């Protein structure tokens, strides 16, 4: 793993072998993310160690639900897929469900994409959903002065390892700060509030729909909570499956 122009990177070149290395390293990075030592005895069970990222299933990738698209990426919301409606996923299970389809949890790098996802939440009166946003607080995130303080500079999109802009101001190119100005502790997000309750770090980025009378906004939330999810095409996984399955139509 290394650093590349502000990205939190698992190295990958364009050839298939490097893609495999990249995928394996990505799996390691995520497993490390959930394999932190328990903070205390009441740590929720779904933070159990030893979970890994799923590899894509070529058939599922070829037949993935394409409910809407934005800038060349397809998306689906589990509540709109008959066999997935009503199901809830913790953050890692959510990533893995998406990854089987050559997708990942949604990453809102731009205001336009964020507005699209906020509108989806609003129109469906969904209480919340996950994004791929993750706090870099696991093995591999040490000795990175550029990520400190973590609550401002330590967030990234797991789907592509791009940094999330500093949490304490309106992102460049945006007209508003997507992080909520309030939460459990009546403080602006991210606030790591659950750590004070049961010792569990709020390491995952959720979109909550007016849970704190704050409209639709980003919150740091402990990763074991279960939510319906939005999946977005993963260029990395689509390219990997395309390069290893000659003639496949994705
Ligand atoms: Ca929070």
UniProtKB/TrEMBL annotation:
Keywords: Disulfide bond. The keyword Disulfide bond applies. Residues 70-232 form the C-type lectin domain. InterPro entries: C-type_lectin-like, C-type_lectin-like/link_sf, C-type_lectin_CS, CTDL_fold. It comes from the Eukaryota. The keyword Disulfide bond applies. This is C-type lectin domain-containing protein. It comes from Exocentrus adspersus.
